[in-house]
Amino acid sequence: MSASLIDGKALAARIREGVARRAAALREKGRPPKLACLLIGDDPASISYAGSQQKHAEGVGIDYELRCLPSDCDMPTALSAVDALNVDTNVSGIIIQMPVPKPLDGFALQQRIAASKDVEGVGAANLGLLAMGRDALAPCTAAAAFACCKASGVDMTGKESVVVGRSVIVGKPLAMLLLGANATVTQCHTRTRDLAAHTRRAELLFVAAGVPELIGAEHVGEGAIVIDVGTHRVDAADGKKKTVGDVKFDEVAAIASQITPVPGGVGPVTVAMLLENTVAAAARAAH
Ligand code: NAP
Q: For atom 40 of ligand 1, which residue has the closest CA?
């Protein structure tokens, strides 16, 4: 391997340290940051995810509250629960655990979150602010991929940057963050003709396609910085499971100058970004 690793775990630890300092300062001012999670139903994966969120939040001095609703609750009840969190002055940030049980409308519930408390950056207001180059709570995964690139030390100004993926929570906001850093951005998707022709030109290559090991050596130019957002559990040769990204790590690492590993790259930074957004929301509310 010739590429050096962009260590997401170390970056996440640095972000958490900063968050912990800011959370302590807010607590001293009598305005402790608090993350509230609305969990509807009893999906075991969602319950486990909420438990992990609580551990991460409390680990940096952010209070955590889980509000639960039964899986058969109706839309007006769920919307009222979001409204109650919106007006609760002790709550700095709100997460709605997805997916919500059918027939509830998860999109409508997320759009109901007050923009100032939308710490996952899933609402139209924050995405709009991001597009306008204004201060916004950016979607955590996009912000994490951007932070990993920044951690490489590269000056993004004018760099040929290619984002594979155009989802609302990753690809699009990531392109906006890159534009904000004066990169030259190309966005690729399933209708892009000759994907490799685009990705090979990239000095900064971001892959958020959701396809295990989509990007191989033939897609990457010599010396590129490669940020792999994908994360997938796949069968390994020994019959066990392993975690891979959207990039064929070994062959791309032989060509790239810097690369994020999977696991241990964008993933841990995403969690740290949720904490960062929560403390930022709390700080703004405290002013
Ligand atoms: P998504 O909603 O499925 O979007 C995937 C995007 O990639 C779409 O825009 C799609 O194009 C594009 N795409 C798919 N196959 C492609 C191909 N062969 N060539 C070019 N473009 C292709 O996924 P997402 O939510 O953005 O997530 C992307 C990846 O990030 C997933 O692997 C997910 O697991 C991972 N993820 C990681 C974290 C983390 O913390 N590390 C958090 C969230 C997500 P179209 O628009 O044309 O369909």
A: 267
180-238 tens-digit pLDDT = 999 999 999 999 999 999 999 999 999 999 999 999 999 999 999 999 999 999 999 89
Q: Is the CB of 175 under 6 A from ligand 1?
A: no
User: In the predicted model, what is the mean pLDDT of residues 261-278?
Assistant: 98
Is residue 168 within 6 Å of ligand 1 at its C-beta? no
**CA quadruple 76, 78, 80, 86: dihedral sign:** negative
Q: Which of 6, 167, 186 to mutate to test the pocket of ligand 1 (most atoms within 8 A of CB)?
A: 167
The residue whose CA has the least distance to atom 35 of ligand 1 is 230
Q: Residue 1: its pLDDT value, please?
A: 57
Pick from 78, 61, 70: nearest CA to 113: 78
pLDDT at 287: 79
Within 8 A by CB and 6+ apart from 110, the residues are 96, 98, 118, 120, 122, 123
79 found inside a domain: yes
Structure tokens belonging to residue 189: 């998707």
Please name every residue paired with 221 in a beta bridge, in sequence order, or none if there are none: none
Q: Which domain holds residue 85?
A: 30-115
Number of structural domains the chain divides into: 2
Last residue of a domain, one of 115, 149, 177: 115
189 Cα to the center of ligand 1, angstroms: 9
